[in-house]
């Protein structure tokens, strides 16, 4: 297979296993490119990509921008905070104005779930969802899968625990879909109050004891507490959360086996994970950041149909 089965990347739910494997294998080639002395290829030289971020982002936005520039695309950056959206302009108006400037592809992050899907039905450009509310974050799941595969050799049959604020995390949902399609076993772990009601319908194991989850898994993906999305208190205090669900070096070293530690970032050091764990040999957090550029290059390249 040399072509994606979908025109857009709206979520992992819309991809099949062949699509995911194609993206991961293409990302391997691009990882070689970004480690060369000359890190650029002319693959998207005549393509214009608009980055529309209606929500604050540092890592994802930088990663996409770097991926686009490595592919020699023309890049237009749009920040809603400094735009006419503040004056009441609608999403469609904003995008149509940008498309009038002859943009071929739109990378969009939006606080509302389904914003990317809505957009894909109204405009001709290819859409890449860079995160929509607490719904999906497909490129994060793809780079996480790429990082696990790179570290462990394969994903099929591996046990992955996603630990933390499952309820508000778009990373958790995209990871569950992606890992299951690649044949992994997935467990979610966290307080009962931070588990979505539909979690059992996704075919994942649910655990509320951190040590049990860590003893079960090969990989622990630690999620941060998304305080900015929480409208009520879901647990008594951050200190209590850290005591029950925070990963520290003593706990990591006391396990019966070595596990791989991941984090999608940004890290709340000392809350869900301590610095000595984040910076330890078992952590692949910085590999995830590097792999993000290669995976996003692969997504943009394949959606542009340049195979």
Structure notes:
The protein is α/β, with parallel strands linked by helices and 307 residues long. The chain folds into two domains: 12-137 and 291-304, Aspartate/ornithine carbamoyltransferase (Rossmann fold, 3-Layer(aba) Sandwich); 138-288, Rossmann fold (3-Layer(aba) Sandwich), CATH 3.40.50. 37% of the residues lie in helices and 15% in strands. It has helices spanning 17-34, 59-70, 91-99, 115-120, 138-152, 170-181, 210-216, 238-245, 249-253, 275-278, 285-303, and strands at residues 48-53, 74-79, 105-110, 126-132, 159-163, 185-189, 205-207, 219-222, 260-262. The strands form two sheets. A five-stranded parallel sheet has the order 7-6-5-8-9, with helices on both faces. Strands 2-1-3-4 form a four-stranded parallel sheet. α2 (59-70) crosses α11 (285-303). The chain is globular, with a radius of gyration of 19 Å. The model has no long low-confidence stretch (mean pLDDT 91).
Walk me through the topology.
Elements: H1 17-34, E1 48-53, H2 59-70, E2 74-79, H3 91-99, E3 105-110, H4 115-120, E4 126-132, H5 138-152, E5 159-163, H6 170-181, E6 185-189, E7 205-207, H7 210-216, E8 219-222, H8 238-245, H9 249-253, E9 260-262, H10 275-278, H11 285-303
Parallel strand pairs: 1-2, 1-3, 3-4, 5-6, 5-8, 6-7, 8-9
Helix pairs in contact: 1-5, 1-11, 2-11, 5-6, 5-11
């Amino acid at each position: 297979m040399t072509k994606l089965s979908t025109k857009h990347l709206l979520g992992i739910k819309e991809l099949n296993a062949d699509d995911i494997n194609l993206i991961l294998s293409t990302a391997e080639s691009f990882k070689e490119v970004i480690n060369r002395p000359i890190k650029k290829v002319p693959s998207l030289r005549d393509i214009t990509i608009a980055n529309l971020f209606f929500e604050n982002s540092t890592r994802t936005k930088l990663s996409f921008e770097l991926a686009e520039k490595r592919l020699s695309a023309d890049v237009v950056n749009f920040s809603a905070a400094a735009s006419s959206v503040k004056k009441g302009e609608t999403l469609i108006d904003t995008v149509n104005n940008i498309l009038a400037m002859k943009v071929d592809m739109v990378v969009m992050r939006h606080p509302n779930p389904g914003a990317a899907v809505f957009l894909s039905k109204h405009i001709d450009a290819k859409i890449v969802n860079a995160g929509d509310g607490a719904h999906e974050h497909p490129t994060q799941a793809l780079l996480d899968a790429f990082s696990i595969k790179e570290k462990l050799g394969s994903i099929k049959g591996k046990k992955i625990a996603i630990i933390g604020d499952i309820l508000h995390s778009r990373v958790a949902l995209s990871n569950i879909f992606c890992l299951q399609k690649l044949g992994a076993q997935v467990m979610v772990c966290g307080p009962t109050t931070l588990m979505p009601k539909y979690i059992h319908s996704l075919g994942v194991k649910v655990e509320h004891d951190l040590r049990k989850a860590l003893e079960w898994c090969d990989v622990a993906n630690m999620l941060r507490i998304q305080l900015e999305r929480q409208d009520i208190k879901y647990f008594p205090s951050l200190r209590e959360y850290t005591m029950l669900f925070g990963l520290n070096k003593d706990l990591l070293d006391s396990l019966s086996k070595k596990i791989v530690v991941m984090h999608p970032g940004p890290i709340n050091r000392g809350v869900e994970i301590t610095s000595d764990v984040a910076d330890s040999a078992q952590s692949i957090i910085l590999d995830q950041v590097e792999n993000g550029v290669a995976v996003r290059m692969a997504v943009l390249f394949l959606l542009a149909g340049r195979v």
